[in-house]
Amino acid sequence: MKKLLELLDIKKILIILTPISSLLLVISFLIYSSTFNTVAQRIDGSDNPLSSADSLLQDDEDFWTTTESVFEDVYNSSASGSILPVLTNPFSTEPEKVVYLTIDDGPDPKSTPQYLEVLRQYNVKATFFMVGATMERNPHLVKDIDSEGHAIGNHSYTHNYGSLYANTENFTEEILKTEEIIYSLTGKKNKIFRAPGGSPNMRKTELLDNLNELGYAYFDWNVSAADTAPRGITKSQVIYNIKRESKGVKKVIVLMHDNHRRMASVEALPEVIEWFKEKGYEFGTLNESVEPIHIKWKAQKSKTSKTVTEAVYQSGN
Ligand SMILES: [Zn+2]
Questions:
Q1: What distance in angstroms lies between residue 61's CA and the mean position of ligand 1's atoms?
Q2: Overall number of domains in the chain
Q3: Considering the entire predicted model, what is its pTM?
Q4: How far apart are the C-alpha atoms of 285 and 273, rounded to whole Å?
Q5: What is the CA 77 to chain-centroid distance, rounded?
Q6: Which of 140, 144, 153, 251 is least enclosed, having the fewest CB within 10 Å?
């Protein structure tokens, strides 16, 4: 009987204690999460260095995502036949077989020195189309590129399609700002431009007119390393792409990218150079007097209309 009473007591105690302990658990959880939120807010604050590094990385991701999507658009259209590379008569001063290596979006603290090292080893000169804001962050690399005899081209200030191509004011401002950066670092004005994503992005005719007024020649490419493929790419794929697209082409402008997250092209470069040398190509750098290669843009055939609008993009603009 005594034992039974004891048991009952224990049950009573348990009945009282269970809700109390649950309540305590809830309270301690609430205290913990409010503390955690405060810490999280502090990390998000604009004065925190972690936060600015993070936002830079985020911007960079956006930059690449945009690059890829337009890049893909161009190539998808190319496969369907609506965008065709136009190869114009080369200048008589150009060698019979010539390759222009173009390296876009740099400079980059990791990949640029590697590009320079390979180019130095093979005594080959290339053309670096660089972004103004990126040059401001790495001025010493711009000077290295220039002092080693490579050509430097204008690739806009922000590489942000939304603002760059929005109107002529933005477009002009970005080109002139980048021109000024190149001039202040090298003392040179090589008036060559590569449109981020390719010249079909300048399909508003006023942008092209503006580029002409500024005295710029613009260059697309007819061979691509395709090193911005969203799922990444290997060194051997880069070599394969370049060899395949260059087959039978006497004047080649190769597109590669200068970015620490896209290292396949710089890794492939020694073999790419050896292959072009073996095939009898000479290596050139771009300047205003080289006859450009432009991607010819045609509007997609409308599903509702039979008319096909042909754009005015011809070489020599
Ligand atoms: Zn670019």
A1: 13
A2: 1
A3: 0.69
A4: 14
A5: 19
A6: 140
* pLDDT at site 311: 32
CA nearest 252: which of 85, 72, 119? 85
Token look-up 């269970």 returns: 18
d(Cα 231, Cα 26) in Å, to the nearest integer? Answer: 45
Asked if the bond preceding 107 is cis, omega within 30° of 0, the reply is yes
Residue 165 lies in a domain: yes
Q: Name the pLDDT band for 139 (thresholds 50, 70, 90).
A: very high
Helix (H), strand (E) at residue 252: strand 251-257
**274: amino acid identity, one letter:** E
Helix (H) or strand (E) holding 83: strand 83-86
**122 forms bridges with which residues in the sheet?**
none
Question: In one letter, which amino acid is 191?
Answer: K
In a domain, 317, yes or no: no
**Residue 256, pLDDT score:** 98
Range of the domain at 206: 56-297
Catalytic residues: 104, 257
Give the H or E element holding residue 193.
Answer: strand 192-193
Distance from the alpha carbon of residue 228 to the mean position of ligand 1, in angstroms = 10
CATH, residue 115? 3.20.20.370
In angstroms, rounded to a whole number, what is the distance separating the alpha carbons of residues 176 and 197? 19
